[in-house]
Each structure stands twice: as structure tokens, then as C-alpha cells.
């Protein structure tokens, strides 16, 4: 699975950070960024799915 963040769509609510603390961080402007790139598996894949589910503006998408 690969996680994508649409930084133009992200409004900085931070719910993704709570759902995926090992995968996502917030930049200085409060916009979500990935801590890693490329395909994910295991716990990080689970965190990516959780982050996509909780994002209120659908800025996080998954490619499986």
C-alpha cells in the first residue's frame, strides 16, 4: 500500500497525526507530511489506512 497526502487539500486538523504517529508528521504550517515514502506494510500500512479514514477533508488517499 502507498499513502498519498494532498497538501493543497489538507487543512491541518491533525486527526491523521493521532491515527498514524509513526507515519505522519505536521510541517511548520500544520500541514500533514509523510515521514517515509514508498510502499508500506504491517503496522505502517494500518496507520495509513486509519489516517485516511479519519481525515475530515479526504486529503489522504491509499493505493493498494
Strand order of the largest sheet: 1-4
Compute the number of strand runs. 4
Mean pLDDT, as a whole number?
97
Proper CATH architecture: 2-Layer Sandwich
> What is the strand content?
15-25%
Low-confidence stretches: none
Largest sheet: 2 strands, antiparallel
Taken from the alpha-carbon principal axes, the silhouette is: globular
Describe it for me?
There is one protein chain. It is built from two helices and four strands; from the N terminus they run βαββαβ. The protein is α+β, with helices and mostly antiparallel strands. The protein has a two-stranded antiparallel sheet. Strands 2-3 form a two-stranded antiparallel sheet. A hairpin with a 5-residue loop joins strand 2 (24-26) and strand 3 (32-34). The longest helix is centred in the C-terminal third of the chain and has 13 residues, at 42-54. Ferredoxins are iron-sulfur proteins that transfer electrons in a wide variety of metabolic reactions.
Brief descriptors of the model:
22% strand, 4 strands, Ferredoxin, globular, alpha+beta, two-stranded antiparallel ribbon, 2 helices, metal-binding, 64 residues, iron, Alpha-Beta Plaits
What's this, in brief?
By secondary structure, the chain is of the alpha+beta class. Helix content is 28%, strand content 22%.
Q: Which SSEs are present, and which pair or pack?
A:
Layout: E1 2-5, H1 15-19, E2 24-26, E3 32-34, H2 42-54, E4 60-63
Antiparallel strand pairs: 1-4, 2-3
Amino acid at each position: 500500500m502507498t499513502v498519498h497526502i494532498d497538501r493543497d487539500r489538507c487543512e491541518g486538523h491533525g486527526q491523521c497525526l493521532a491515527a498514524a504517529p509513526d507515519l505522519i508528521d505536521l510541517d511548520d504550517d500544520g500541514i500533514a507530511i509523510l515521514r517515509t515514502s514508498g510502499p508500506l506494510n504491517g503496522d505502517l500500512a494500518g496507520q495509513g489506512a486509519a489516517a485516511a479514514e479519519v481525515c475530515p477533508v479526504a486529503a489522504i488517499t491509499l493505493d493498494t
